[in-house]
Amino acid sequence: MHIEQTAIDGREAATGNPPHDALIDFINRLDFNIGIANNDMHLKNWSVIYRVGRTPTLAPAYDYVCTKAYLGHSETGLALGSARDFSRVTIEQFEHMAERAQVSTRLVRITALAMVDRMRAEWPAVKTEVPEQSAATIDDHFRRVPLFSGNIQVPVEEAPQPPPSTQFEIS
Fold this sequence. Notes:
4 strands; two-stranded antiparallel ribbon
């Protein structure tokens, strides 16, 4: 199964909110899971909730763990384009997903790169709150995953603001 199918299905989940907000939320969650080396981002961890009749929206995020620290391998839970391994995840994979899902490639690119910048900027402050083995894995992951290893900068005025459900806190 490919993550593109989740994005395509997510178009249906966008009918209750502005579709652009649902897409931003989806891309931020996907980017975050890639950034924390979560090998466990399979379809059962992408859920929708029906708050208003038959209108689905993304369910609150759950099961976000740096599983690579414990599993030791670099396989993603779902394929992102042709990438089934974190070492092959690039911004082009996100663009390919957007094309297949028939959503804005520009919005997906800007959102994904903005989230990468945000994670890289905030990581040093939250790193001490993460178990040592996971922190070391994420540090190494940021260096090895093409999406995170580059010097990516998105002008602030172009970066979409994440919906409230993508505000991350360590508790």
